[in-house]
Each structure stands twice: as C-alpha cells, then as structure tokens.
Write a structure and sequence with these properties.
single chain, 49 residues, mainly alpha
C-alpha cells in the first residue's frame, strides 16, 4: 500500500476543523483514509522535528 500525499493546506484545514470542534479525530482520519492512531503520531512527530 502506497502512502497518500496530503498537502499542507489540507492538514491545516483538518486541524482547524478538529480544534474548532466541527469534526472528531476519527472523522478526520477517515477523510484522509488513514488509520486513526497512525495519523496523530505522524502529525505530532512532524511538529517535534
């Protein structure tokens, strides 16, 4: 299975939806077609680098 590329604008949009309480973490993971647990590890690991 190949990794799906997601542009930074889509990531920011998704985080804003979550932070504003408009979408759940699971719904955002579904939107991007990724596993729920993997998605948040990826986001936070890129923030820490």
């Amino acid at each position: 299975m190949s990794k799906r590329k997601v542009c930074i604008e889509d990531k920011i949009y998704a985080m804003n939806l979550y932070l504003n309480g408009k979408e759940s973490q699971r719904r955002i993971a579904f939107m991007f077609g990724v596993r729920f647990d993997f998605m948040w590890v990826s986001i936070f690991s890129t923030k820490m680098a």
